[in-house]
Amino acid sequence: MFELDDFSVSFGSGTALRYANLEIREGDRLGIVGESGSGKTMLALCLMGMAPDAATISGRLSIDGQDMTHANERLWQQMRARRVAMIFQEPMTALNPLRRIGDTVMEPLIVHDGLSRAQARMRVLALLEEVGIPDPPARMRMFPHELSGGQRQRVLIALALACNPALLIADEPTTALDANVALRITDLLVRLAHERGMALVFITHDLAAVARTTENIVVMYGGDMVERGPTAQVLANPAHPYTKGLLGARPDPTAPARDANGKRRRLPTLPGTVPPLSALPQGCRFSGRCAVELDYCATTRAPDHAVDANRAAACHLLGGVKP
Amino acid sequence: MTAPLLEARNLTRRYKLPRTSLLHAASILTAVDNTSFTIRAGETLGVVGESGSGKSTVARMVMAFEAPDAGEVLFQGQNLHSLSAADLRVQRQKFQMVFQDPFGSLDPRRKVGWSIAEPMRAIGVDGDTARRTSEALEQVGLPARDADKYPHEFSGGQRQRIAIARAIVTRPALLVADEAVSALDVSVQAQILNLLMDLQDDLGLGILFISHDLAVVASICDQILVMQHGKPLESGPAAQVLRSPAHGYTQTLLKAAGVF
Amino acid sequence: MNRRLPVNFIIGAVLVALVVGTAALSLVWTPHDATQLTISNKFAAPSSTHWLGTDQLGRDVLSQLMAGARNSMAVALVAVLLGGSVGVALGLLASAIGGWVEDGVMRLADLGFAFPALLFAIMLAAVFGPSLTNAVLAIAFINIPVFARVTRGAANQVWTYDYVLASRAAGLNRFAISRDHILPNIAAAIIVQATIEFAVAILAEAALSYLGLGAQPPASSWGRILSEAQTLMYIAPQLAIYPGLCIVVAVVGFGLLGDGLRDMSDPRLSRER
């Protein structure tokens, strides 16, 4: 359905996304994992046709076979809501505080699908029911501030689902929520994707959330897709040094904080910090922070190397042969 | 057993909520309800909870930014909230704080060295403030010349290092870290956690470590206190709380922290 | 920072430079002595010696306008500085102490706002007698609540930032924090307000002088020139038009400059443009 071919986004000062290749099929649940500056949010914006005006785009982005790389706003407006919809991190600011929940969710149904108010109302009641909001008729009359954060995120999901999109992009949907609420929201997203046969792109820095939610993941660093494969396999046995470092740096709640001598255990770390876009190395973006480094890592971009049948990682160490 | 560095006894803090109607009396929110804990020198207590659990209010009371409605905070045996304003300002050098947002906790218009030296100026430290500023920077793994830069020239992790340098420059006995690594990327988070452990080993600091992330707390804390809706749910040695959580809510937090 | 400057800032800056430059020039040079009477040469048309002609007493109009500019600027400057300093101090105090002090200061400010500003200035000048000093004091006085409110609003915002909390943790008292952190971080907002108030002060001075409550002869100001020219509206309308234009240029100039400064200090606004 959705396809990216060597898709790149750059600004005057640097490259936000480099040679991204991605294919999203019906019903896929895909996690995009990365830290700040990894390009994961830029990727989401591009899939929504909302790349900033200042961006220079190359490569190809197609939806249902149609080339959308340089599509105009009108074409995108037809795609949005119906083919692809998005929910955001902050459920408070994404809803108009002066409009009742019902009116907000009814709007796309009336505007895009041409339903009457009565028809739209019926659909909204069903949608709110579907996303697990109790007593939908009463909630429709409420304003956003009368709902809790989790409820608001559910309303936003209902809004995104209103026109039956084939793909739902969730950008850090649980970051602003409390743990038990977040667990229920991720469960809801998985259930909805399953029941509707809808594809889900789950963008997050939270490895635990992505493990619960997705079948496949793409790990991003500095605008590159550095590793991809089935979620469970990648997390259990990472191939790219960055993925390894990221997983290692994550505190493990089951490991004791002190060793046998009463000395505190240190966490394994990745040295340094993510450099700014304009200062990324030309070759492998991770060079300079990588523990094992070849002499050409900093200058030559690493191609995808197959790890096994359905996994790949962009690392020279996996290539074996010097290019 | 050494005497506790910090002892919080039955802390309670209530806030009056804004009135929603002229006809109803303002309702009262109990942000922290009858919470007690102790921290010894060289030991870390983790307070875990989510937004609204009261954990940040605990930090504000320990830092004497606000007074409890009931209960007391004893720091080195002294009740902080019964000190005069002037005495409290002098005592403050012994307990310092690191904040969540590394972009908000440094004055953007002041050079880093100026900010780090501020606590020394406030209490009139004699001697070489410039030398101690450089030392503090080196202790947190930054070059001394960074004192002449402005906060916007640093990344989030580096700024958090600067905030820590500022907190340890008066050689405190207690460090309060309120979500000090929550705003950082995972790879940087581990560096800062390690830095806190290093400093604790070197300086014998007691640390009050506040976080919503049980995994982070597990990695650095000796004792854990779980809070929900202002009430202490369970507490005890970290290993015990993590291995056999007594409360369903703690189990939820563990699940969210994620073992996969 | 190579963002384009806002248009209103550029236009405002040019107009302000023109007015301030003229006022400054008048300190060292005017084409003629502004107060010198030459009755024989009254109502002269513009010429190479009198660029804008002469008035009913044969005084050079351009020289008078230049000297008037100097007085108008000086009154506005002193008034805004005076009123601004008191207002900023009160605002900082209110914000730092809070509680009943804050309430008290703000209620007083409300009282100031409730009074029509110009009327209040006229009243002060009327009670204490017409003089330039009283005009300055009156205009300064009406500026106090404006600055107190702006300062307190901006300061309350800064007080919520973590770096202020960090300074409290460091043991600084409220006055040191106000001085070291609050004031530098709200300076931009205050400067913007001061520029806009400068325009208001010029207008207020003109109004007071026009009513005879400001500059007293032989001192001149745009308001005074305007008031003298008023009686001659049908004989020599240009004598009223020139000072009127000067006032408009100055007020519009400072107003636009203030707007432009505000746009530059608030990145959100400039992005929406």
Keywords, separated by commas or semicolons:
heterotrimer; A: 323 residues; alpha/beta; Rossmann fold; 2 domains; four-stranded antiparallel beta sheet; C: 273 residues; mainly alpha; MetI-like fold; disordered C terminus
- Helix-strand string of chain A: EEEHEEHEHHHHEHEHEEHHEE
Q: Percent of residues of chain B in beta strands? A: 15-25%
Largest sheet entry of chain B: 6 strands, mixed
Looking at CATH, the homologous superfamily of the largest domain in chain A is: P-loop containing nucleotide triphosphate hydrolases
* Tally of DSSP helical segments of chain B: 9
Q: Strand arrangement, largest sheet of chain B?
A: 6-7-8-3-9-10
**What distance separates the N and C termini of chain A?**
34 Å
**Strand element count of chain B:** 10
Major sheet of chain A: 8 strands, mixed
List segments of chain B where confidence is low: pLDDT < 50 over at least 5 consecutive residues. Answer: none
Structure notes:
The complex is a heterotrimer of chains A (323), B (260) and C (273). Chain A is an alpha/beta fold and 323 residues long. Chain A is built from 10 helices and 12 strands. Chain A has helices spanning 40-47, 73-79, 101-111, 117-130, 136-140, 149-161, 179-196, 207-213, 231-236, 241-249, and strands at 2-10, 15-24, 29-33, 56-63, 66-67, 84-87, 167-171, 199-204, 216-221, 224-230, 305-308, 311-313. In chain A, strands 6-7-8-3-9-10-12-11 form an 8-stranded mixed sheet, sandwiched between helices. Chain A has a 4-stranded antiparallel sheet with strand order 2-1-4-5, with helices on one face. In chain A, a hairpin with a 2-residue loop joins β9 (216-221) and β10 (224-230). The two termini of chain A are 34 Å apart. The relative contact order of chain A is 0.14. Chain B is α/β, with parallel strands linked by helices. Chain B has one domain (6-18, 26-257): P-loop containing nucleotide triphosphate hydrolases (Rossmann fold, 3-Layer(aba) Sandwich). In chain B, the strands form 2 sheets. Chain B has a 6-stranded mixed sheet, with helices on both faces. In chain B, β7 (174-178), α6 and β8 form a beta-alpha-beta unit. Chain B is globular, with a radius of gyration of 19 Å. With 273 residues, chain C is mostly helical. Chain C has a single domain, classed as Orthogonal Bundle (MetI-like fold). Chain C contains 10 helices and no strands. Chain C has helices at residues 7-28, 61-97, 99-114, 117-128, 132-159, 162-169, 174-210, 222-230, 238-265, 267-272. The radius of gyration of chain C is 22 Å and the shape is elongated. Chains in contact: A-B, B-C. The A-B interface holds A 35-36, 178-180, 182-183, 205-209, 211-212, 232, 235-236, 245-246, 249-258, 264-270, 273-274 and B 50-52, 155-158, 185-191, 193-194, 197, 200-201, 212-216, 218-222, 238-239, 242, 249, 252-260.
